Amino acid sequence: MLNIPAVTTLMGKGAIPENHALCLGMLGMHGRKSANYAIMNADLIIVFGCRFSDRITGKTSEFARDAKIIHIDIDPSEINKNINIDMSIIGDLKLVLDDILSVLKVKLKSPKETEWSKKMKKIKQICSCDTDINKIPIDPRKVIKEINNIIKDTDIITTGVGQHQMYAAHFLERNTTRTFISSGGFGTMGSGFPFAIGAKIAKPNVEVFDIDGDGSFLMNSQELATAKEESIKITPIIFNNNYLGMVRQWLEIFYDKRYSQVNLGKTTNFVKMAEAYGLEGIFVERPSEIKDALLQAIKNNETTLVNIAIEPESNILPMLPPMGELKDAFGGCMEKAGYEIFDGLI
Q1: Which end of the chain is more exposed for a tag (fewer CB within 10 A), N or C?
Q2: Is the pLDDT of residue 334 over 70?
């Protein structure tokens, strides 16, 4: 209606269809450069129920310095807590949005294409990098691509916490509300599998997938027994890199690879673990095997664990340095492609 770009936080993923030309994806520490660019160069930001955590703002004193901010939230304690805003609306988001839309329908005759909206669409296209990467060990982005090709808009995706979570947040496309469930805030490792069990009980007629890391999944792997005993059919997809991946990434980038307590070794056999609970496990080590493994898991009548051996030292980029600004985000496909659209801006 307004023809303006939209970005989401991790917890808001799917609130806006991500295949929309003006949905720029997730912003923040591991967000898309397109989303960060829009925030840092906007003159007005309308915020719906966001708490302005450090994971999306970066250095708060530099966050959207030139923008006016309207913050809509049901909790008055969130107003001006982390970011000073210019206008607040306290209320239930659904009711507030209904009121706003009723006014806009009267005031607006037809949406207009602006130079800003044209630029945002172009930036989104630039930021949509190719993830069809065929190499061994498997690139995590390739796994997400295969998942995107198979899942339906009504399917539910949950995640654990770690690199795999950020790969999903960055590259997985969700176009329907409440179909992406992840742990923000404290970031509780091991939550993905229980989330999936709960989602399947609530929505028994849809497929439910848990995108998880080996370290995260191990924290609640005993719930395979629950899935078996209660006949709860879900599909855990393990991004197995034999590391606590996100901590390893930080140690690589910011501490010269001085790894400590992050190598999980290669002892755990997730396929045999699934079999020990009376379930099927599928091991994948080649990109060509991903699709068939996922389809077989969907076809099976009970929980099937898909264990995918991914690149051990892959990094999810872009990311911000500690206490960095959104414009300081480094890495990512646009940087490799040599695009200059962000030079001097982000």
Answers
A1: N
A2: no
CB distance 142 to 287 below 8 Å: yes
Nearest to 267 by CA among 213, 198, 214: 214
Tokens of 102: 């009723």
Determine the average pLDDT of the residues in 323-328.
86
The pLDDT value recorded for residue 345 is: 47
Rounded Cα–Cα distance for residues 147 and 328 (Å): 30
Look up the CATH number of domain 6-127. 3.40.50.1220
- In this structure, of 221-225, 245-249, 334-338, the range with the lowest mean pLDDT score is 334-338
> What does the alpha-carbon distance between residue 168 and residue 23 come to, in Å, rounded to a whole number?
16
Which class would CATH give 140-309?
A: alpha beta
**Per-domain boundaries in the chain:** 6-127, 140-309
pLDDT > 90: what percent of the chain? 82
CA distance 91 to 49: 10
- What is the DSSP secondary-structure string of 133-188? ---SSBPHHHHHHHHHHH--TT-EEEE-SSHHHHHHHHH----STT-EE---TT--
